[in-house]
Amino acid sequence: MALPVIVKKIEEISGLPEEDLELLKKVEDKYPFLSNEYYLSLIDWEDENDPIRRIIIPDLHELDPRGDLDPSGESEITVVRGIQHKYGPTALMIVSESCGGVCRYCFRKRIFLDTESETIDDFPEAMDYIKSNPKISNVLLTGGDPLFLATVKLQHIISKLREIPHVKIIRIGSRMPAFNPRRILDDPSLLEMIKKYSTKDKRIYIMTHFSHPRELTDLAVDAAASLLSAGAILANQTPILRGVNDNPDVLSELFTKLAETGIPPYYVFQCRPTIGNSHFSVPIEETYEILRQAREKCSGLAKRAKFIMSHKTGKIEILAVDENFTYMKYHQAADIADNERFMVFKKNPKGYWLEDYGGSFLKS
């Protein structure tokens, strides 16, 4: 498999001036840097505000102490190590602590730090939990990045899930089609595995994470086509990121390219208040307006993404904003009693997260 050269230290990047390297080492000492030559080649080094650069190159703003390492309360829904179970029909398996690159906005950056591992350590115990919960109809493999695993390891996990009758859908969340399309294109065994286990009545979904249209290179589009030909269903999710895709033209271009490639937009996430991520955050109401304008430029197939805040109490969809109020509802709630709950808040232009609206709740 012809993998691009991995770049693990910022001093290995030829495009950065020496004075920048010295400053950014302070960030690298706190939050690891990881990329590869392919992804770095997408950067326009003449543009200090290049969006790909912003995604992958450390920034001094990451030293801002505001935020939380676990903003969505994942530790509270971990039932056995490596298994999260927040919503009845869905279980989440953390199967890898490694990625093809470390996004500077990662909401799960704690797994790259020297903390206790969160990946599955007792595979039979994890499988037993899923087997013993017949309400679990779909399982999301995440990390890290499941496609960073060797195919033989990934196939072992998927084959065991396919032995559980009530697990109908397997989802694989991955940035690899953006970071390293050759992981897919140069590994026939991966595509053969997908073809075997993505059947007509039990599909494998690949949840891609393209955040900017320039990530959809010819290689990335070829990788997506290969996954589709193997029988996978593709859908995309991205957070709204300041300086990356917080622009209606950029976002509409991303949505349109995704739809044309066969990767329908699925979720647009409000950037989570993770420590070191504040410089990526855009207020909720500003994001809604960006999305509204972007959708106006798109056809129906390109405008289907839901605007979601992945709060510890559930996935909250931001439905509308008018002159006075912001309207939300629970798309999926940790407490089943909150499912589809409709909420109205007084507008707060500085609101980034649900708690920022706490004092202005009107009705549900």
Could you walk me through the main structural features you see in this protein, from its secondary elements to its overall organization?
The structure is a single chain. The chain has 364 residues and is of the alpha/beta class. It has one domain (6-363): Aldolase class I (TIM Barrel, Alpha-Beta Barrel), CATH 3.20.20. The chain contains eleven helices and 15 strands. The strands form two sheets. A 13-stranded mixed β-sheet has the order 3-4-5-6-7-8-9-10-11-12-13-14-15. A two-stranded antiparallel sheet has the order 1-2. α10 packs across α11. It is globular, with a radius of gyration of 20 Å. The model has no long low-confidence stretch (mean pLDDT 94).
H and E order = EHEHHEEEHEHEHHHEHEHEHEEEEE
| Second CATH tier, the architecture | Alpha-Beta Barrel
Point out poorly predicted stretches: none
Give the neighbour order of strands across the main sheet.
3-4-5-6-7-8-9-10-11-12-13-14-15
What would you call the shape?
Answer: globular
Mean pLDDT: 94
Helix content percent band? 25-40%
Helix vs. strand class: alpha/beta
Largest sheet: 13 strands, mixed
CATH level-four homologous superfamily name: Aldolase class I
